[in-house]
Each structure stands twice: as structure tokens, then as C-alpha cells.
Amino acid sequence: MAAITQVEIFMVELQPKVKRVDAIQSFVCQETPFVRITDADGAIGTGYSYTIGTGGPAIVSLLEKTLAPALIGKEADRIEQIWRELSFLTHATTVGPLTALALAAIDIALWDLRCQRARLPLHIAAGGAQQSIPLYTTEGGWLHLSPEALVDDALRAQAQGFQGCKIKVGRPIHEDTARLGAVRDAVGQGFEIFTDANQAFQVDDAIRRARHYEALDIGWLEEPLPADDITGHLRLSHHTSLPIAVGESLYSASHFREYLQQGACSVVQVDVARIGGITPWLKVAHLAECFNVAVCPHFLMELHVSLCSAVPNARWLEYIPQLDDLTHSGMRIEQGRAFPADTPGIGIDWDPQAIDAHRVAGSHHVIRTH
Description:
The chain is α/β, with parallel strands linked by helices. The chain folds into two domains: 4-118 and 351-368, Enolase-like, N-terminal domain (Enolase-like, domain 1), CATH 3.30.390.10; 123-339, Enolase-like C-terminal domain (TIM Barrel). Helices cover 39% and strands 17% of the residues. The protein has twelve helices and 14 strands. It has helices at 56-71, 79-89, 97-118, 122-125, 147-159, 173-187, 203-214, 230-239, 253-262, 278-290, 301-310, 352-358; strands at residues 4-14, 30-39, 44-48, 133-137, 164-168, 192-196, 221-222, 244-246, 267-268, 294-295, 317-319, 332-334, 337-339, 365-368. Helix 7 packs parallel to helix 8. The two termini are 20 Å apart. The model has no long low-confidence stretch (mean pLDDT 96).
């Protein structure tokens, strides 16, 4: 083992490749806080998280002023101990997204460091359960797009070997069903169509809408209600045959436990950044496995491909390119399936020059042993 001697923090800002609009918001930009951790042997691990346009500077500040100084001198391999100590250090601001996103950047960097020192890829070090994961695309299913555009994207994805797509919902019911119906008529019955409401509905509306979506053989209804309304999700689950998917807006393993114990969801979409890193992500995935529930994580495909391959109950990976501008090479895709990288580390081929070119001015901080 080797002690942590330096923590480097900075933020990169990226513009989405396409316009992204859902039922409650637009994806304005991607703030991407980075953490690089160096140990006494000179090994370096890189971690990151993200926002969709707000809160990034607060995450950087939390890292700089509170979390990074607490890392100096810690043994880098004691990842579980470090996660718990940092979580307790920030207990007055947990559970919540800003703290979770800051913890995630550190935890991912520590896992990257561990895997590099062990000369293992993340998908093997974390379990090695699967060799590849089927993809569905969200990038052409945004709420502002016309039915014709939705159909064109779904057919293009189908031709490329993708096995499903996701369509945002939240328009009047007759418009949602018309849009979904147009895609179903185009792709046929052998192609999955998922829906995502982004927490836009109330319980009565969700129950009514689910009845209409059922006729189109929808794969799941994602985030139909506010994430903290577990009782509402339970009521909805009792009124529909549609699988209910939750997780991108949950920031604690305990929240997932409540959903699973009460039978309020059928699909877990745990996000490695929003849950606080790889350490809690794996706990949630294995918890879902104990309930015989599939894991289909939200966003961050470049990292989630390795985590999905690590666990046996991962079923789908969401295709939304995120890091193309910051990497030498992208995620390997063959016949609609994603394959994790076999290189040591978390499996992302960073381009340091591109990262520097996108770095936000004034966001760079270095904390080191004196």
C-alpha cells in the first residue's frame, strides 16, 4: 500500500452534442469535476462526476476545502474506510447530490488507482460477471423532437444493432401515445421502447398514463413521480403491468433499500456519480440482485459499461455519449453491445491535452503533502 501525497482538482465544461430536453428541464451543459490522486509511489488515479449545468463550482469548492485535505496521508487502498470517513466528515450535508457527486469523483479516482496498481481492468476487479452489455439509445428520444425524428433515430439505432431506445414522455397523453405508437409501428415488436418522465407526473396522472402506455408494450416507465415519493411509486406499481424504473435521482443506498423492500420499483437505475462512487454503486447493484431486480444505470456509459460487466444482474446500458471530446478512443461497440476496456484502471482512455483545453478557468487546485 502507499499513502496519498497529492490531490488535484479541476473542472471541465462540455456542450451536449445534441439538444437535450425532457419533461422538466433542458441539459444546458455538462460541468465535469475531476480529481487526480497521486500516491507515494507516483501512481495516479483519475475520477470524475458531472452536473447538467448547475452546481459544479460548489462541488469543486467542497472537494478543495473539505474532502481533498482529509485524503492526504491516507492509505489509498483503504477505499471503503476512506469513503465512510469522508461521508461522516460531511454528514451535515448528506444525503444530497452535491456531496454525493464530490465523493464520487474521489472514490472513482481511488478505484482507478487500485486497478492500475493491481494491473486489472475495473470490470474484473469489481466482479467480472459479464463480457458485454446490450445498449439502448436515449440520444434521439428527447421531448422536443417530432414523431418523424423519433422514428428516424429508432430505425437508425435498430439498423446499427441496438436493441432498444428510450422516448421522453410528458406531453398530453394523446401526443405521448401517438409518438410512442409511431416508433412502435416502425420498429416492430422485437425492439424495446422505454419511456422516461423525469419525475413530471402526479400519482393520478401516472396511473392513467401507464394504462395508455401498456398497450404499446413499453419496456419500463422511468421516474414517473418525484423520487422521494416512495408511497406514490408503490401505488403506481400496484396499478400497472409496466415495470417502474427509479434511481438516477437517489443519492443513498438506503433509499434503494426502501424502494426494494416495499416493492415500489422493478428496475434499478443507480448512477455511479449521484450515488457517491463505485463503492456504493456496487452495494446497490448487489442489493438489487438479492431482490432479483435488474440494474440498468443512468448515463455515464463510459464508466458504467465496466460496472455493468462486473455484476450479474445488469441488463441494459444507456447510450448517451459523454466523453468523446476528452478521450483518445470511445467505448467499444459491436452489434449493439458495449464491451468494457481490458486495460488496467476504470477503462477510460483520457486525452490530457483535450482535458486541459476544456478546463474551466480558476477551477484548478492542488493539495499536497507539505
